[in-house]
Each structure stands twice: as structure tokens, then as C-alpha cells.
Automatic annotation (TrEMBL):
Domain of life from the UniProt record: Bacteria
Official protein name in the record: FtsX-like permease family protein
Family per similarity comment: Belongs to the ABC-4 integral membrane protein family. LolC/E subfamily.
GO biological process, one term: lipoprotein localization to outer membrane
Domain named MacB-like periplasmic core: residues: 19-252
InterPro entries: ABC3_permease_C (IPR003838), Lipoprotein-release_system (IPR051447), MacB_PCD (IPR025857)
Subcellular location field: Cell membrane
Domain (ABC3 transporter permease C-terminal) ranges: 281-405
An example Gene Ontology CC term for this record: plasma membrane protein complex
Amino acid sequence: MRLILDIALTHIVGRGRQTFVAVIGVAVGVGFSIAMAALMQGGQDDFVEQLIDTMPHVQITDERRTSKRQPAEDRFAAAQISGLRPPDDRRGIINPTAAMAWLDAWLPGRYSASLRTQGVVRYVGREAGASIVGVDPATERAVSPIVGDFVAGSFIALGAGGNNIVMGDRMADKLGAGLGDTVSAVSSTGLSRAFRIVGLFHTGTTARDEGEAYILLKNAQILSERANAINDIRVKLDDPFSSPPIARRIEAELGYKAVAWQEASEGIMEAFVVRNVIMYTVVAAIMLVAGFGIFNIVSTITHEKARDIAIMKSLGFSQNDMQRMFVIEGLAIGGAGSALGWALGFALTTALASVRFELDAGGQEITNLPIAWSGLHYAIASVFALGSAAVAGYLPARRAARLNPVDIIRGAS
């Protein structure tokens, strides 16, 4: 084995210029694959982190995933029901005190109950449609990232007493109102109450900044004429990725629809899977192109060393020895290219991470590219490189091993 290794290295060194070009080809492929994977994974991780921070990990509403079973279905073996109109149940989540006590007993995280209703906010002849959310400021602060997005006033002022309201800054601009002004909130039932603006927030999400307003839970219940009602419980867990089983447990116990953030963002998560498939397909294509360079080098060596192969086989070297020798040559080129590619990938990733820019996206500034540092990216790129190198070395090695030494020496090939 040591002799075969020495011969393989001698062949590689003997064609130094071509070997160097092949190594550089592999290195560039590995380096750019690592940098691309770091950038794409970093963007995905950053987006998922924003989802986790901005969305409730589990959201419980007063809806039910399936319609309530009708008495006729229990009484008769076959029943067809059409034109069924469910009663207008405005109670929200029934017996919310018991539901929250049950959550307190085992939930590994925090939650906040609220009453969400649709209405209109008016000011000096202008009006804006709004989702009016009644909350308890003490519990809401533990689950909502909106607390840190205020550009005027604060979320704490909501519970300072009186009829107070906080809203998105774009809604305030649309109304022409500002901090300290008094607006009228009109519910879907037609009831109207006056509220003083004590805070303006800017999340960067247009739908929220233009269409959300928060008031105290008791005020929302009065405004919507739903005494002691809640219709939404938002949960933040200690481990966000444990959301699906916890959502299933809550739904099984309470009977109300509980949606984990993964389910709510199912389309986005599927898009990430497709994007990752595309990314690794591109990596494989880059490595395949680099493999052609290795194939060209080993094929040339095989052709030029035909008489040496014949002499070695006549001295007792087997076909497996010949194949092993040329595969080693391919792997040596691939290994050297991978090592150099690691350095290039690290340099490119460092350069991308150091890029700083300012982007004003409605009040949000992104100052650097999201980069994911992972040893897995280096390992995957090296596996692709060594795999393509092994195949590129094996194909000419197989041909060389089948050569008849007598025909070669006689000049038949």
C-alpha cells in the first residue's frame, strides 16, 4: 500500500501545472459552496428567529377545528344535514378562568389572554378600520414584542388608569392624530367610547402599524358588549420548537383551536425546504464541474503511463492495485482542494459577515448580512468534493486496470 501511495503521489507531482489547476477548481467550488450555504442558512435562521419573536408560539382562539357534532348524528346511523346555521355565540372561550388555571399548572412558558374585536377608530372626521385588542398590560408584556417597538409614549401607560389606547403610528398618521389626542373607538355593535392616545408603536409590518390598536381588556369587553369574555390566548414557550405537541395537548384538553407557529407558517417552512434542496443541488453541480477537472488529469495520467501500468502488472500488481492507485490520485487532488477550499470559504464568509450597510425599511435598519457559522457546511462541501474526486478517479482507474500488459508492450494500445 505504501508503494502504491508513493507511485500515485509521483504521478500527481509529475503533472504539477495540471494538478494545481484541478486543486484550484475544487477549492473554488468548496469555498463558494461554504459561503453560499452560510449566507442562505443565516438568512433562514434570521427569518425564523423573527417569526419566533413576533408571533405567539401557540395561539388559542375561540374557534373549533371541526364543527360540533349534531344530535341527529348520534341518534341515527346515517344523517345528512344541510343549511345548518350555528347560533351566534359571543361568549368567546367558555369558562376562561378554568382554562387559564389549567395552563398555569403545567405550561412551560407564559401566556396572555385578550379579546380581539373589529371596529373603527375616528378622529376629527377621519376614520380607520382597526382590530381593537383588549389586553392585560402585565401579562401582555411577557408575550408581545410590540412592547419594545414604541416610537412615542409607552405600553406601560396603557394601564395607568382611564380610557387609554395605543396604536400603530401609521394609523395615527392616517387619522391625523398624535400622542395625547382623544379618539373615538366604535365596535361592530355600534357602541362608541372615547380613548386618549398614550403610545404609538412601529413594528415595520404595515398590517399591524395601520390596523391594530390596544386598550385594556375590561374596556374591550365593555366596548364589544361581551362581559368577562376572551377569544384569544397567546402563548410564549421556553422552547419555541416544542410548540406542536403542546398545541395538540391544549387543543385536546380545551377543545378550542390551538395553532403552533410552525403550522401558522407552514407555507414559509415548505419554501425553506425547497430552497435548501436548490442550494445543495447547486453545490453538487459545482462539485461535479470540479470533478471533470480531476477526471481530465487522471485520464491523462492513465494514458501517458500506459507502459508503466503494463510493467507494474507484469511485476505482479493486481487490477485492484491499479484501481486503488488512480482513485488515491483523485482523492489526493480532492482532499487538497477541500483543505484549500475551507480556507477560502472561511475568508469569504468572514468578508460577507463584515459587510455593513444601512437600509431604512419603514423604521427598521439592517446593518449586516445574516451569516450562519456551522461546521456542517464545511463537512457537506468536503463530502461532495471528495465524492466527485473519487468518481473522477475511479472511471479512468477502471479502464487502466483492464489493460492487457502484453498488448501495451507490443504497442497495441
